[in-house]
Automatic annotation (TrEMBL):
One of its GO terms (biological process) is acetyl-CoA biosynthetic process. Signal peptide: none annotated. Belongs to the ATP-dependent AMP-binding enzyme family. Its EC number is 6.2.1.1. It is an enzyme of class 6 (ligase). Residues 116-195 form the AMP-dependent synthetase/ligase domain. This is acetate--CoA ligase. It comes from the Eukaryota. One of its GO terms (molecular function) is acetate-CoA ligase activity. It holds the Pfam family ACAS_N. Residues 60-114 form the Acetyl-coenzyme A synthetase N-terminal domain. One of its GO terms (cellular component) is mitochondrion. SUPFAM superfamilies: Acetyl-CoA synthetase-like. It comes from Geodia barretti.
């Protein structure tokens, strides 16, 4: 086992043992307020998100996506996602030849979109509900807590030399720490592969794979 994998293992093990610090009271769980504003009013077209029923809403949105696909999806992507580089073209699709390209020229960070933007808007909103093995043993992880864990793990991986394009194999049980580790890999551009493991977090370094 390499010194790199040992240091990462030791750090993650300490985080695992301290996972109880992420426990929140039941009342912290809440749903985000419903969206009442139109999705877009650009070019005189408005896409309402709230209609009288779920089926009607889905049908109406689906119809709009067929009528104005480029504007519909371009507006959704612009308003709902955070781009590091804005796309130049929404779509380039050829149904006959089965070729589909979306948001050409654009780039984004999945981790930032999954965590950061929610933590900034509503840091106390629950991001993960963790049902443990014992009935009633439930933990609620907020976006603020998830952002902190994700950022710390990403910094540990970077400090130990993990960089964009590296492959990180994650060997640990299902938990909020696992989700944070996956998001940390995406944050720094590393590719993760998940292998379910026991809580002991046994690590082994093999060629081109860092097991954490």
């Amino acid at each position: 086992m390499s010194s790199v994998s040992m240091r990462v293992a030791r750090w993650l093990t300490n985080q695992w043992r301290g996972a109880s610090a992420l426990t929140l009271p039941q009342q912290s769980l809440h749903r985000p307020p419903p969206l009442s504003r139109p999705l877009s009013s650009r070019a005189g077209v408005s896409y309402p998100l709230q209609l009288s029923s779920v089926s009607e809403s889905h049908a109406s949105l689906y119809e709009e996506s067929l009528k104005h696909p480029e504007q519909f999806w371009g507006d959704l992507a612009s308003r709902r996602l955070r781009w590091t580089k804005k796309f130049d073209q929404v779509m380039d699709c050829d149904m006959r030849n089965g070729q589909f390209k979306w948001f050409l020229g654009g780039s984004l960070n999945v981790s930032e979109n999954c965590v950061d933007r929610h933590a900034e808007e509503d840091p106390d909103r629950v991001a993960i509900i963790w049902e443990r093995d014992e009935p009633g043993d439930t933990q609620f992880i907020t976006y603020s807590q998830l952002l902190e864990s994700t950022s710390r793990i990403a910094n540990v991986l970077k400090r130990e030399g993990v960089k964009k394009g590296d492959i990180v194999a994650i060997y640990m049980p299902a938990s909020p720490l696992l989700a944070a580790t996956m998001l940390a890999c995406a944050r720094i551009g590393a590719i993760h592969r998940y292998v379910y493991g026991c809580p002991c977090l046994h690590l082994q370094l093999t060629t081109n794979y860092l097991h954490v």
